[in-house]
Every structure is written in structure tokens, then in C-alpha cells.
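Minimal example, chain plus cytidine-5'-triphosphate.
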Amino acid sequence: MPNYFALIPAAGYGARMDHQLPKQYLPLAGKPMIYHAIHTLCRSTAISRVFVVLSTEDPEWRKYDWSQFNDKLTVLYHGGATRAESVCNGLAAASTICPDCLISDEDWILVHDAARPLFTQNQLRQLIDEIGDDPVGGLLAVPVADTLKRGDRDARVAQTESRENLWQAQTPQMFRYRMLLNALSGNTHANVTDDASAIEALGLHPKLVHNRDFNFKVTYPQDLELAELIMQKRNHQ
Ligand code: CTP
Ligand code: MG
């Protein structure tokens, strides 16, 4: 049976958040945002180990006490210039830094953004169950709900695009270790904004797993406000 590992890329700066602190450390429900993804993944009995990929110059991580996760968490200061590079570096470093993890080529890697704090155990179970032993792997995703406009350079509508069969990709995205590492090696440009697109570039078709719960990416300041409200509501249920 393959094992399941999680890898959290957290080496970005959060330019669109426009805050002096990298967004993964902004406070959310009394914790740095990244805490929530780590907590969900470390608490899952399905996941053997959780790797966090930080920027080589990250000064923030060590300001917090992460000791409650000591049995599951490995920190990798191997971030790159793009998300894809951070994931690729992290995958390569994981097997050398944690030889005891015995990561095999066929083991599953769940790559999850530090900036998706609303991800839950139920979503994790659904993803793992629906992917099963799929030969390619897949990702959580949501069908596009809004009407889509393609704009021109002057921000005027050039045309309306059909939203039929269009999905918004979320994370985790789960693929087998060797396939993902091979897909990302040499394919870490800024336009490879998720793991699935590297797999698609191999001519493969990742499975879309319909997520019906909140799991949006905190990108802009207003996303952080909404995430805070959803967390407060969940904590009172
Ligand atoms: N990420 C990373 N390495 C990078 C860029 C991004 O590990 N060089 C991580 C981010 O830390 C985040 C995830 O990839 O957890 C998703 O990326 P995104 O939401 O785009 O975060 P940022 O790149 O930090 O934000 P922005 O694009 O607004 O600068
Ligand atoms: Mg980014």
C-alpha cells in the first residue's frame, strides 16, 4: 500500500496581500495563517509526514512554537522563485532530509497551499477516497459559478466566455512522488501555478474532485476577513 505525505509550499511573499509580513504568517483566528493547514494535515492519521517548504531566508518561522507537531512535521528551507520551484525543491529535499520517511516512487504527495487555511479533515478524506488508486491523481476543485468575461487592454468586454466544464483549481493536489517530481523538474516557470498543470504538460488528465465546502485561497486582504468569519462560525458550531 502506498503512503501519503503532505507538502506545504510556504515560500511566497504574498505580493497581492500588500502587507509587510508574508501572508502565511498573518494572524488568523489567533494563529499565523499557515498553522491551520499544518494542524489539519498533521492531525490526519492518513498522512505519514508533513513537509513545509520555507524561503531560505525566512525569519518568521522560528518566532513561533511548533513543538506540538514535532512527531509529524519536517521543515525544509528550500523555497524557490516560483511556487512550482518551491514544490520541486521540497520534493527533492524531502527524501534526503528524511531518509527514515522511506518515500517511494509510488507514494502519494498531497501538495497544499499555506494560504488555504479553511481546508478540513472531511475535505482531505473526500480527496483521498475519490482519488483512490487512480493512475494519474487529482485535485480539489469547484465548478466556476460566475459569468466569465474576457476583457481587452482597456478593460472593456471583448467577449463572454462559456463556463461550461470550467473549474477553479484548489489544493491539495495529489500525485505520486516520482511522477510529480519528474513533471516539475525543468517546468517551474511562473505560469505553472499549480501541480496539476505540470502533470497536464505530460499529456495526462488529473481527476477533478468537486469540493462543496470553503477552501478558497487567501490572496487579497478581504479574503483574510472572510476566512476569519468562517473560522469563528465553525468554532461555534
Ligand atoms: N509559494 C511558494 N514559493 C513561491 C511562491 C509561492 O512556496 N516562490 C507558495 C505560497 O507561500 C503559497 C502558495 O505557494 O502558500 C500559493 O501561492 P500564492 O497564493 O500565489 O502566494 P504568494 O505567491 O505568496 O502570493 P502572491 O502571488 O500574491 O505574491
Ligand atoms: Mg503567487
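The chain has one domain: 4-140+169-235. Helices lie at 33-43, 83-97, 121-131, 177-184, 195-200, 221-235.
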